[in-house]
């Protein structure tokens, strides 16, 4: 018997023992993830048996089956792991998420603070390019306008429209009367 044949049979015995252990883990569990990993191990073992047979018998007949087994194992493990992760977090955190949303909806939103700094005061340093846009040490020049905008409390709305008569009217979205129930 050649050394390659001996190595082949030792490999087949070890792979068979691994397959039996994986089948036992699929049967016993205890969790879904254990079972999914065990099925993935079984697919890897089947592919390894085919690869060992191709190496010993010097043929390439099983390559498509090995590729398909690898793809099925990978995609199945990812799909089940994603399902289990979403399902477990959704059921466990559903109550706390609802409570957090209720707290956020009932929480009082504080008015933004607008720093009052004299732009003509040389002691205050160079005047920023946008009113209220004091830059901190870690803020980039390209984002300082956004900081100033958020601190100002600006709320975007539609511009006024002009009718054919030359009268100015307001869009229904921008009209804010105190008596308006909206």
UniProtKB/TrEMBL annotation:
Where are the compositionally biased (Basic and acidic residues) regions?
A: 157-182
Cellular localisation: Cell membrane
Q: How does it sit in the membrane?
A: Multi-pass membrane protein
Say if the entry is tagged with keyword Transferase: no
- This protein's major location comes to membrane
Q: Where is this region: Disordered?
A: 110-182
**Highest taxon of the lineage:** Bacteria
Keywords annotated in UniProt = Cell membrane, Membrane, Transmembrane, Transmembrane helix, Transport
Q: Where is the composition biased (Low complexity)?
A: 120-133
**What Pfam families has UniProt attached to this entry?**
MrpF_PhaF
Q: Where are the transmembrane segments?
A: 6-24, 36-56, 62-85
Q: Which InterPro entries match?
A: MrpF/PhaF-like (IPR007208)
- PANTHER family according to UniProt: NA(+)/H(+) ANTIPORTER SUBUNIT F1, NA(+)_H(+) ANTIPORTER SUBUNIT F
Report the sequence similarity comment from the record. Answer: Belongs to the CPA3 antiporters (TC 2.A.63) subunit F family.
Q: What is this protein called?
A: Monovalent cation/H+ antiporter complex subunit F
Q: Which organism is it from?
A: Nesterenkonia flava
